[in-house]
Amino acid sequence: MRFKSFPEIKTERLFLRKIEELDCDSILFLRSNKIINKFIERPEHRKTKNKVDAIKFIKEINEAFEEDKSISWGITLKNDSKIIGSICLWNFSQDLKTAEVGYDLDPKFQNKGIMSEALKMIIDFGFNELKFNKIEAFTHKENENSKRLLEKNGFHFVKERKDFDNKLNIIFEIEKANN
User: Fold this and answer.
1) Residue range 21-79, pLDDT digits in tens
2) What is the structure's pLDDT at 3?
3) Cβ-proximal residues to 101 (8 Å cutoff; 6+ apart), any chain
4) What are the φ/ψ torsions at residue 143 (nearest 5 degrees)?
5) Residue 1 contacts residue 66 (beta carbons within 8 Å)
6) Do the Cβ atoms of 89 and 135 come closer than 8 Å?
7) pLDDT band at 135 (very low <50, low <70, confident <90, very high)
8) Sign of the alpha-carbon torsion through 152, 73, 62, 133
9) Which of 2, 3, 90, 151 is the most exposed place for a label (fewest CB within 10 A)?
10) CA nearest 101: which of 62, 63, 73, 143?
11) Cα(9)–Cα(88) distance, rounded to whole angstroms?
């Protein structure tokens, strides 16, 4: 899965790019804002409370990319380099057939189709570039915006699966269409 360089993705309105240490203020905001994180439970050692934590997190996700363990993109508007959200493919299965998607977005930019636009590109990238057969999403059972986003983009709720790490999460998945 090695890439020569970080896979940047452009959409009609967005630019999905590598997250750099210079983005630490945006990452701190995304990982500590109460509205964004209302439905996210992180263990104490994974919480981002200050710039040092944000830089540490950025280093971790970039190392995970270098080690082929995940890919995390910063979401920006095409005409502005400031990160307004992030989206990642991570938690790859041993056989590299399944990955999990995760995302967050500044509340000022929610309900504008931005995350849907980014998610469509990441699904396409996961299936066509990384050759995954399935992409999963774990979301809080009360996170209606996330559930709507996933369903709108072809994910379906998997009633029989449980998240043993967080009983408040429900699991959605999308499978690659067989062409």
Assistant:
1) 999 999 999 999 999 999 998 888 889 999 999 999 999 999 999 999 999 999 999 99
2) 79
3) 87, 88, 89, 119, 122, 123, 126, 135, 136, 137
4) -85, 85
5) no
6) yes
7) very high
8) positive
9) 2
10) 73
11) 12
